[in-house]
UniProtKB/TrEMBL annotation:
Residue intervals of the Tc1-like transposase DDE domain: 82-190
Database matches in Gene3D superfamilies: Ribonuclease H-like superfamily/Ribonuclease H
Source lineage: Eukaryota, Metazoa, Ecdysozoa, Nematoda, Chromadorea
Native source species: Ancylostoma ceylanicum
Name of the protein in its database record: Tc1-like transposase DDE domain-containing protein
GO MF, one example: nucleic acid binding
PANTHER family, per database record: MARINER MOS1 TRANSPOSASE-LIKE PROTEIN, PROTEIN GVQW3
Lineage: superkingdom: Eukaryota
Record InterPro entries: RNaseH_sf, Tc1-like_DDE_dom, Transposase-MT_Hybrid
Length: 248
């Protein structure tokens, strides 16, 4: 290769690198971009929780066949960003200490919670321990006395700690399931709740219960403060792995 060929190549590369990157517009859908953009904007104006797959299905019914990943790229170009709403409950300072003590105690005992019934309302049998929140009806003198008379063992739960109770995940997912169905009438609401309940498998419940140990560790790490359900950070995973290796 000659000197001049190398110089032409370098100049061509420098010119390419200095050019501003063009906005992503697939050639196949370039002529239909305005319509696709309009469908995306209208979909999110009606329902901000609309998924890319749902938008792709809408376009498919209009004879525009486009994948969900391409919709995602269009969405980013338009300016929409995917975010998750975070809900946190208030925890007073004295209860943060109680949460840390409870979490450390459960971790030290290697508690599996397999013999616990997590509940707001339920019937109880003798082979299990009852786990309930600290709502006034649950901690009243009458309730405590009745549970004692019935020989029901109650696992003392820290106050302001619904984020540790796996049944709250059930309720949260049920509400999401109902919201996505966009129910409008009471019969629709009842049928949707029953449908969710019928599809709630023991495997799903076991997954929620197995996750309690991770949430306990996060409570300790955050000094008893709020933990936000969802994706843990990489440092969380490193801490979990180190602790599990120590246990082994």
């Amino acid at each position: 290769m000659t000197y001049y060929a190398v110089r032409r190549f370098i100049r061509k590369f420098d010119n390419y690198a200095s050019q501003k990157k063009k906005e992503y517009t697939p050639r196949l859908y370039g002529a239909q971009f305005d319509h696709i953009k309009s469908v995306i904007e209208n979909s999110y104006s009606r329902d901000s929780s609309t998924t890319c797959k749902e938008i792709a299905n809408t376009l498919r019914m209009q004879n525009i066949h486009i994948s969900a990943s391409q919709i995602q790229r269009y969405r980013c170009n338009i300016g929409f960003k995917r975010t998750t709403t975070k809900y946190c409950h208030t925890i007073r300072e004295q209860n943060k200490v109680a949460r840390v003590v409870f979490a450390q105690d459960m971790i030290a005992r290697n508690e599996s919670f397999y013999d616990c019934i997590f509940t707001d309302e339920c019937t109880v049998q003798r082979y299990a321990r009852l786990v309930q929140d600290n709502a006034p009806p649950h901690i009243s003198a009458f309730t405590r006395q009745k549970l004692q008379d019935w020989n029901v063992e109650v696992l003392k739960w820290p106050a302001e700690s619904p984020d540790l109770n796996p049944i709250e995940l059930v309720w949260g997912n049920m509400k999401t399931f109902i919201r996505r169905r966009k129910v409008r009438t009471l019969p629709e609401l009842k049928s949707t709740i029953l449908e969710y309940w019928e599809n709630l498998t023991p495997e799903i419940c076991e997954k929620y219960i197995n996750g309690v140990k991770k949430r306990l560790r996060r409570v300790v790490k955050r000094g008893g403060g709020n933990i936000i359900e969802g994706r843990e950070t990489s440092s969380d995973f490193e801490d979990y792995a180190a602790e599990e290796n120590e246990e082994v």
